[in-house]
């Protein structure tokens, strides 16, 4: 025989809950890889990957190539803080005269 199902609303009337609700777990300070530094976008995937690999070696940071429609974005990171991304952005400017911008990692 099936166990009886309690109808909604019939549970202990309006008696207050004895145990307080557990506190929600604290959210992590930042998701792993909250930010990336985008240094360019080109229409040729092979060129984008070569460029990204060169920057990864030169600056010793992780990098990736992501597709956005007809272009391939060259991004370095991800970084857990905007400060880390900003520090790399400064290095790109001073060491390689590269303009870049910080965007959130998808």
TL;DR of this structure?
The chain is of the alpha+beta class. The chain has two helices and four strands; from the N terminus they run βαββαβ.
Describe the structure.
With 106 residues, the protein is of the alpha+beta class. The chain has helices at 45-59, 82-96; strands at residues 35-42, 63-68, 71-79, 101-104. Helices cover 28% and strands 25% of the residues. It has a 4-stranded antiparallel beta sheet with strand order 2-3-1-4. Strand 2 and strand 3 (71-79) form a beta hairpin.
Order of adjacent strands in the largest pleated sheet:
2-3-1-4
Order of helices and strands: EHEEHE
Number of strands: 4
Tell me what portion of residues adopts beta-strand conformation.
Answer: 25-35%
Task: State the helical fraction.
Answer: 25-40%
Provide mean pLDDT, rounded.
83
Keywords:
106 residues, 4 strands, 4-stranded antiparallel sheet, 2 helices, alpha+beta
Q: What is the topological layout?
A:
Elements lengths: L34 E8 L2 H15 L3 E6 L2 E9 L2 H15 L4 E4 L2
